[in-house]
Amino acid sequence: MNKQQTNDVILQTVTKVACFIILLFSFHLFFAGHNNPGGGFIAGLMTSSSFVLLLLAYDLKTVKNILPINFIYVAATGLFISVCTGIGSFVFGAQFLSHAFGYFHLPLLGKTELATAVLFDTGVYLVVVGVTMTIIQTIGERE
Amino acid sequence: MIETAKIVIAVFILLGSLICLAASFGTLRLPDVYSRIHAASKGATLGIICVLLGVFFYFWFLHGIIAAKVLLGIVFVFLTSPVGAHLIARAAYNTGVKMEEKSVQDDYEGYRNFVIKKKEDSYL
């Protein structure tokens, strides 16, 4: 159907910039999730949407070269991390999925509140990225 | 000082919404796809940027918050909205959408990378 290869220079050039903006914003959403709107789920969706933008601008093979990750393993790692944070509370004699936080003095950030909920959120984030990218890549390959 | 700030904010937000309204009228009134995209993309981009600037000034002047997210949104809309319009227009041209009758010149004629062989391929 196509007479010649389509020339996607404008889309690809803008993707190179916009992809990083979306990634940065997804990290912001991830770390803001404790006190502001955001969190693991929406951050994972934003990250996978930036990968989908890459998939739209380039083809499947190029994206597999850029990100040589099998996203099923990413989802599995996320589930593993989430379960481990739940089980980790047994070590301190607390109930399953108990949550703790503390204030620490970090070198650059100063006084920071670190909570174990972030670890659970990391698991959620990885699961969402893995599942979304797996769905989209498997649908895209059926050509 | 606060009153001046409020006037500036109101002007930005009202101007932005009026530009968006003009863009939507342009989308309704103009004859073919390309001039509609011309109205919608440019008008909506500038309108949204004006509204977002108003929001940014509102939080800055009245609450003392510098909302970097809004600035990032302005940059992002400015960057991506014309590209979206460009892609829609190119897709329309490549699938064989005709220009308006009164248009004079088509320098891109013959360089469509989509060839209409059957009648179902055309979106006319």
TrEMBL record, chain A:
Q: Which keywords does UniProt give here?
A: Antiport, Cell membrane, Hydrogen ion transport, Ion transport, Membrane, Sodium, Sodium transport, Transmembrane, Transmembrane helix, Transport
Protein name, as recorded: Na(+)/H(+) antiporter subunit B
Which source organism does the UniProt entry give?
A: Bacillus glycinifermentans
Transmembrane segments annotated in the record for this chain? 9-32, 38-58, 70-94, 114-136
Protein family membership: Belongs to the CPA3 antiporters (TC 2.A.63) subunit B family.
Location in the cell reads:
Cell membrane
Top-level division of the source organism's lineage: Bacteria
Domain named Na+/H+ antiporter MnhB subunit-related protein: residues: 10-134
- Cross-referenced InterPro entries: CPA3_antiporter_subunitB (IPR050622), CPA3_sub_B (IPR005281), MnhB (IPR007182)
Give a yes or no for keyword 4Fe-4S in this entry: no
| Membrane topology listed for this record | Multi-pass membrane protein
Cellular component (GO) terms are: plasma membrane
- Among the Pfam families in the record, one is MnhB
A molecular function annotated in GO for this UniProt entry is: monoatomic cation transmembrane transporter activity
Q: Has keyword Membrane? A: yes
State the Gene Ontology BP annotations. Answer: proton transmembrane transport; sodium ion transport
UniProtKB/TrEMBL annotation, chain B:
NCBIfam families, alphabetized: CPA3_mnhG_phaG, PRK12674.1-2
Instruction: State the family it belongs to.
Output: Belongs to the CPA3 antiporters (TC 2.A.63) subunit G family.
Keywords assigned by UniProt?
Antiport, Membrane, Transmembrane, Transmembrane helix, Transport
Its protein name is: Cation:proton antiporter
Q: Does the keyword Flavoprotein apply?
A: no
Subcellular location(s) per record: Membrane
PANTHER family per the record?
ANTIPORTER SUBUNIT MNHG2-RELATED
Q: In terms of one coarse class, where is the protein primarily found?
A: membrane
Entry superkingdom: Bacteria
Q: Does the keyword Transmembrane helix apply?
A: yes
Q: Name one Pfam family in it.
A: PhaG_MnhG_YufB
Q: Show the GO cellular component annotation of the record.
A: membrane
Q: Where are the transmembrane segments?
A: 6-28, 40-60, 66-89
